[in-house]
Amino acid sequence: MEQELDYTAIGDRIRRYRELSRMTQEQLSELCSLSTGYIGHLERGTRSPSLETLAKISQILRVSLDDLVFGEAEISNNMIKILALTLEEKDPEKVKVFLKTVCALADKIDEF
Question: Disulfide: which of 8, 15, 17, 67 matches 61 by Cβ 3.0-4.6 Å?
Answer without folding.
Answer: 17
